[in-house]
């Protein structure tokens, strides 16, 4: 019975209170550059871009039940593509995001078939292997700058005029992030989203009902790749620099940590988690001698023991737990 | 041509190390479905033990001491990890716990040893080189190949020909049945976890003269071990050996023939194996075979 409740609680229902709350959050987010200085605004920009990556991890981990450590690879594919477009073709921000999105989609489609045949923890292992392979490629391939990465990308422009102030870049990133959030929310509430949750909770029954679980999983993997690619393009819109470190193990681990802190399956929880995690890594880290990962590692352990349902699940009595890794995923592909 | 033969030797030495490292990962996965993401960090801890004790070419005794110390450290870390993962029945939670531990261990190591690249000299008696196929070749790497052969035989005898090995194989196949027979499977699991981690840490010391020690090496080693396990088949000793030898060759030959694309080759090898044999080359069919 718990499973049935899971689906109901995870879909965000639009009650008037929720709409007011969402409106208030949106207003605060839009007002940020007016109120805060340049440095906090760039920090917030990074958080928004990272939140888009975290959304893609949540789409796989929470909605489709496929825990992943490989999304940083598609994030990186989007980031590298956007920088290459910015360096060689155009500084148009829309073109860069579109290119990043397509790069993430293509990379996920090219590598995803290896991963989606597995489930649960084997899926986690395969995505980690894919992600780390892509990281190694970025680290050694001289065409994309090797371990130095790619620098010197010109500022992005919108409708022909360059966005120089950090506030304008922030608004652009915020607009795209909201669009992506809305898109993911639509997918999650659509019949396809229900199919995904059905496959997550009871694959055998879904197959008996005539659905094709493998195809549904491949679809969501490609979709998540595209979302992560767009996140990568947003990341470099602010940083104007990309290096292999942007798609390393740590980024993938932090993205998964954000989802776990926020509560897998909820959409707003992981976004909040993303903000918290980046705050610890980039801001708190400096005040404790650059050893943010130490804190984050301890947070990881603490979250598993103390908050099994994350921020979004706190304050709710019964509900789904993460970690539905019931199968060892050794089954043959369907 | 002799250059390629030297590459093959390099690949065999790398394969020996990979077998030592991947074995624990594979068995723990096969027995408990626990993906130990801290395996690379345990390896790195072993490598830094070597840095602390034998960094600038110490005696053979110091090297042996480093190996023993790393084994103890690895076993302790493995025991802690096994204890932690047994507190929760959810596989994703278990993987997240080991991920947290790996971040903590890697960061603690960089606090103590800094972010510099450390190189480790081979122990004095075997630091020289001999002429193989008309080219000079380090003696130490030949010894590594020997170590791999000895380890493979020892593991074969232990897993396939001993009572303890039959208990381990039975626990992989059907944990419930083994505990119904009155055997404490919890102790078997912790033991295998600790032994696997100890082997990874020893691998860190032995690989020191080849790979050195630096932050980030844990991820690279974890990736290689994962690929070895995926290619070989989860929970399979024979598979781990075959996968390690294959990946060792792909790495060494790739680095000498196509240096630009060496990292593509690892993924291509994994993709090819998964395309043709989704369960790996030598999967454990219900039971581990050595």
TrEMBL record, chain B:
GO BP annotation list: amino acid transport
CDD domains xref list: TM_PBP1_LivH_like
InterPro entries, A to Z: ABC_transp_permease, BCAA_transport_permease
Primary subcellular site in the record, as a coarse category: membrane
Keywords: Amino-acid transport, Cell membrane, Membrane, Transmembrane, Transmembrane helix, Transport
Family: Belongs to the binding-protein-dependent transport system permease family. LivHM subfamily.
Protein name per the record: Branched-chain amino acid ABC transporter permease
Organism of derivation: Nonomuraea turkmeniaca
């Amino acid at each position: 019975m718990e499973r049935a409740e899971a689906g109901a609680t995870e879909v965000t229902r639009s009650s008037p209170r929720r709409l007011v709350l969402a409106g208030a959050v949106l207003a605060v987010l839009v007002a940020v550059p007016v109120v805060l200085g340049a440095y906090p605004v760039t920090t917030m920009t990074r958080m928004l871009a990272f939140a888009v990556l975290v959304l893609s991890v949540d789409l796989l981990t929470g909605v489709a039940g496929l825990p992943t450590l490989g999304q940083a690879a598609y994030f990186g594919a989007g980031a590298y593509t956007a920088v290459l477009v910015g360096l060689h073709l155009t500084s148009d921000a829309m073109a860069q995001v579109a290119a990043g999105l397509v790069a993430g989609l293509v990379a996920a489609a090219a590598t995803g078939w290896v991963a989606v045949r597995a489930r649960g923890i084997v899926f986690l292992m395969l995505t980690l292997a894919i992600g780390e392979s892509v990281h190694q490629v970025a680290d050694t391939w001289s065409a994309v700058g090797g371990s130095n990465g790619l620098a010197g990308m010109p500022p992005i422009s919108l409708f022909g005029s360059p966005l120089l102030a950090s506030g304008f870049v922030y608004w652009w990133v915020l607009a795209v992030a909201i669009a992506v959030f809305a898109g993911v929310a639509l997918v999650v509430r659509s019949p396809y989203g229900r199919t995904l949750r059905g496959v997550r909770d009871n694959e055998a029954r879904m197959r008996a009902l005539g659905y094709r679980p493998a195809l549904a999983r491949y679809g969501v993997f490609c979709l998540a790749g595209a979302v992560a690619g767009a996140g990568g393009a947003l990341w470099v819109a602010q940083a104007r620099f990309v290096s292999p470190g942007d798609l390393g193990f740590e980024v993938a681990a932090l993205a998964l940590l954000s989802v776990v802190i926020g509560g897998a399956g909820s959409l707003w929880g992981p976004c909040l988690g993303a903000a918290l995690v980046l705050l610890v890594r980039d801001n708190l880290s400096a005040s404790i001698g650059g050893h943010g990962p130490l804190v984050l590692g301890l947070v990881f352990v603490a979250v598993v023991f103390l908050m099994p349902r994350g921020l979004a699940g706190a304050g709710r009595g019964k509900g789904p737990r993460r970690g539905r890794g019931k199968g060892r995923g050794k089954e043959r592909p369907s | 041509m002799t250059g390629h033969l030297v590459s093959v030797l390099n690949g065999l030495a790398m394969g020996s190390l990979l077998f030592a490292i991947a074995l624990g990962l594979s068995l723990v996965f096969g027995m408990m479905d626990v993906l130990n993401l801290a395996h690379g960090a345990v390896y790195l801890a072993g490598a830094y033990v070597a840095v602390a004790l034998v960094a600038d070419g110490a005696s053979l005794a110091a090297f042996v001491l480093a190996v023993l110390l790393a084994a103890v450290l690895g076993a302790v870390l493995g025991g802690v990890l096994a204890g932690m993962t047994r507190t929760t029945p959810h596989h994703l939670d278990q993987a997240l716990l080991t991920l947290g531990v790996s971040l903590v261990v890697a960061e603690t190591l960089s606090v103590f040893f800094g972010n510099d690249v450390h190189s480790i000299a081979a122990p004095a008696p075997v630091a020289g080189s001999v002429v193989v196929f008309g080219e000079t070749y380090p003696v130490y790497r030949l010894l590594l190949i020997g170590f791999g052969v000895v380890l493979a035989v020892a593991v074969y005898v232990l897993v396939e020909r001993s009572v303890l090995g039959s208990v381990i194989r039975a626990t992989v196949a059907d944990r419930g049945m083994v505990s119904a027979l009155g055997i404490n499977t919890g102790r078997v699991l912790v033991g295998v976890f600790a032994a696997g981690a100890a082997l990874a840490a020893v691998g860190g010391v032995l690989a020191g003269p080849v790979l050195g020690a630096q932050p980030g090496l844990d991820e690279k080693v974890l990736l290689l071990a994962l690929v070895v396990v995926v290619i070989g088949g989860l929970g399979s000793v024979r598979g781990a050996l075959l996968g390690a030898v294959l990946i060792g060759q792909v790495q060494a030959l790739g680095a000498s023939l196509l240096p630009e694309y060496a990292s593509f080759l690892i993924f291509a090898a994994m993709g090819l194996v998964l395309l043709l044999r989704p369960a790996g080359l030598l999967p454990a069919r219900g039971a581990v075979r050595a």
